[in-house]
Write a structure and sequence with these properties.
Layout lengths: L3 E8 L11 H5 L4 E5 L7 H14 L2 E6 L16 H22 L5 E4 L1 H9 L1 H14 L5 E3 L4 H8 L4 E6 L23 H14 L1 E3 L5 E3 L4 E3 L7 H14 L3 E2 L5
Parallel strand pairs: 1-2, 1-9, 1-10, 2-3, 3-4, 5-6, 6-9
Antiparallel strand pairs: 7-8
Helix pairs in contact: 2-3, 3-5, 4-5, 5-6, 7-8
Length: 254
């Protein structure tokens, strides 16, 4: 059983007048904020608001980097040359870090978003490109990703801290990957189910896949997506259940 665990959520995913999720309420619950950096969502004002709010609440700030895909919310896979992807990731980390520093903190870790996250599970070249960007920017930054992914393998080889992450509100395939959002079972919204899955990953390091099989899923951080219906209440219940199980909920990176 994990003695301590991080609880993260994707924040800052609005753009201009458009808002997605309740960033302020989630910042009161989570311990790490995966902040959009402008490529799939987010803009300068939103990045400033999220980083400032995180500092006020003692929440760690992470750069949630993405394909350059505002129209598709970063959920469309793109065939990008590794050097170009490295530069895109560098650009995003630096943009968020500027606002983090003004707010009195800095970017503490990096996590890919959406299609880039899924690509980095199996695509060796894209995973290596993301890791290269992190290493070139700051080799003390941890990388957050799916257990067993190419991303975490490349991070470890590069000497970076590789942090395995679980999803309380997402379905898993029998292979241990995330069920594509276009398929049945991709999203878990029933509060009791979300809580049970979170506690099981924390206590037993395993998750039940969509076919009923059990997969090993050792994690150091749990995610509740900011755009999942009822995200704030889900996050509150997950945090409460983890605390009730004797697990200290705290950031994995400070």
């Amino acid at each position: 059983m994990a003695e301590h665990l991080d609880l993260n959520s994707d924040l800052g995913e609005g753009f201009g007048v458009w808002r997605l999720g309740d960033d302020a309420a989630l910042l009161d619950v989570v311990t790490s904020a995966n902040a959009a950096c402008g490529f799939h969502a987010g803009d300068p004002g939103i990045m400033r608001a999220v980083t400032t709010g995180a500092v006020e609440r003692g929440v760690s700030v992470g750069a949630q980097v993405s394909y350059r895909d505002l129209a598709g919310f970063g959920r469309r896979r793109m065939d990008i040359a590794p050097d170009e992807l490295t530069d895109d990731v560098l650009y995003q980390i630096g943009a968020l870090d500027a606002f983090a520093r003004v707010a009195g903190t800095r970017v503490r870790y990096v996590k890919p978003h959406g299609a880039l996250y899924n690509s980095c599970v199996v695509d060796e070249a894209q995973a290596a490109a993301v890791v290269r960007a992190v290493r070139e920017y700051d080799d003390a930054l941890p990388v957050l990703g799916l257990p067993g992914s190419a991303l975490l393998r490349h991070a470890e080889r590069a000497g970076l801290r590789a942090v395995p992450e679980g999803f309380a509100d997402r379905g898993y395939t029998p292979e241990g990957w995330l069920v594509p959002r276009s398929e049945a079972g991709a999203l878990v919204t029933d509060p009791d189910s979300v809580v049970r899955r979170a506690v099981r990953m924390a206590e037993a390091g395993e998750v039940v896949a969509v076919d009923g099989s059990t997969r090993s899923m050792p994690v150091e951080s749990l995610c509740v997506h900011g755009d999942t219906p009822g995200a704030v209440e889900l996050a509150r219940r997950v945090r409460g259940a983890l605390a009730a199980a004797g697990i200290d909920v705290r950031p994995f990176a400070r």
